[in-house]
TrEMBL record:
<dbReference type="InterPro" id="IPR050343">
    <property type="entry name" value="RsuA_PseudoU_synthase"/>
</dbReference>
<dbReference type="InterPro" id="IPR020103">
    <property type="entry name" value="PsdUridine_synth_cat_dom_sf"/>
</dbReference>
<dbReference type="Pfam" id="PF01479">
    <property type="entry name" value="S4"/>
</dbReference>
<keyword id="KW-0413">Isomerase</keyword>
<protein>
    <recommendedName>
        <fullName>Pseudouridine synthase</fullName>
        <ecNumber>5.4.99.-</ecNumber>
    </recommendedName>
</protein>
<feature type="domain" description="RNA-binding S4">
    <location>
        <begin position="1"/>
        <end position="57"/>
    </location>
</feature>
<dbReference type="InterPro" id="IPR042092">
    <property type="entry name" value="PsdUridine_s_RsuA/RluB/E/F_cat"/>
</dbReference>
<comment type="similarity">
    <text>Belongs to the pseudouridine synthase RsuA family.</text>
</comment>
<dbReference type="Pfam" id="PF00849">
    <property type="entry name" value="PseudoU_synth_2"/>
</dbReference>
<dbReference type="GO" id="GO:0003723">
    <property type="term" value="F:RNA binding"/>
</dbReference>
<dbReference type="InterPro" id="IPR006145">
    <property type="entry name" value="PsdUridine_synth_RsuA/RluA"/>
</dbReference>
<keyword id="KW-0694">RNA-binding</keyword>
<dbReference type="InterPro" id="IPR018496">
    <property type="entry name" value="PsdUridine_synth_RsuA/RluB_CS"/>
</dbReference>
<dbReference type="GO" id="GO:0000455">
    <property type="term" value="P:enzyme-directed rRNA pseudouridine synthesis"/>
</dbReference>
<dbReference type="InterPro" id="IPR036986">
    <property type="entry name" value="S4_RNA-bd_sf"/>
</dbReference>
<dbReference type="InterPro" id="IPR002942">
    <property type="entry name" value="S4_RNA-bd"/>
</dbReference>
<dbReference type="GO" id="GO:0120159">
    <property type="term" value="F:rRNA pseudouridine synthase activity"/>
</dbReference>
Length: 238
């Protein structure tokens, strides 16, 4: 797929914003500076060069239900339409319109590059509510991996093993290390369950804490240092 669509699909920037990054010479494919129209293959290494270290910013944001991360369609609102951040930042990863909770934003291209790697394996934890009582077999199947159908060029994609803990008759927490489109909803649907609420409350060591819907806080200090270490990125001052 084209490089601007690749970055947009991973919720790093809109296609127009991706084109701007490419024109500024900040995007590389396999170590070579990308140009508009370049295509990305499945095993290619994509890098986005960071802004100057003195201007790096990192925020934890509570995305409300009904708001899209980027690439809003007519009648939709995206994060940048409803929230103003002190710095120009981009979402790191995706959280679909019907879901709520933790979204990280930054202008540090090193972090984007690290998270774009297929082998990144960063833990993301969610609280899930479904439409009927949960069975032990359902939870066991979620843990072992689920065929969620087509993903990119794979007709039958099986999710990686997950950690699952039931919290009530119809709710459970789940930890996954990948982020396919609407993955948890598709995992539940495969066994006849419909997700009624989905809230992400942790990414690696960063948690929502006391954030309320539509608010954000800066990620800094020891919390930031640990996060960068988790994703194999050197410290903020480097």
């Amino acid at each position: 797929m084209r490089i601007n669509k690749y970055l947009a699909d991973r919720q790093y920037a809109s296609r127009r914003e991706a084109d701007t990054l490419i024109e500024r010479g900040l995007v590389f494919i396999n170590g070579k500076k990308a140009v508009l129209g370049d295509k990305v293959e499945e095993n290619d290494r994509v890098e986005v060069i960071s802004v100057e270290k003195g201007n790096r910013a990192y925020f934890a944001y509570y995305k409300p239900v009904g708001v899209v991360t980027v690439n809003a369609q007519e009648g939709e609102k995206e994060v940048k339409d409803i929230t103003r951040f002190p710095e120009k930042v981009y979402p790191l990863g995706r959280l679909d319109k019907d879901s709520e909770g933790l979204l990280l934003l930054s202008n540090d291209g090193r972090v984007t590059t690290a998270l774009l790697k297929p082998e990144a394996g960063i833990e993301k934890e969610y609280a899930v509510t479904v439409d009927k009582d949960i069975t032990h077999l359902f939870l066991k199947r979620l843990q072992s991996g689920v065929d969620i159908g087509g993903v990119n060029n794979v007709k039958h994609y099986v999710t990686k093993p997950a950690l699952v803990r039931r919290t009530s008759k119809r709710t459970f927490d789940i930890v996954i290390t990948e982020g396919k489109n609407r993955q948890i909803r598709r995992m539940c649907s495969a066994f006849g369950y419909t997700v009624t609420t989905l809230k992400r409350f942790r990414i690696a060591n960063i948690e929502l804490d006391d954030l309320t819907s539509g608010t954000f806080r800066e990620v800094k200090g020891e919390e930031l240092d640990e996060f960068l270490k988790n994703i194999n990125v050197r410290g903020v001052a480097e």
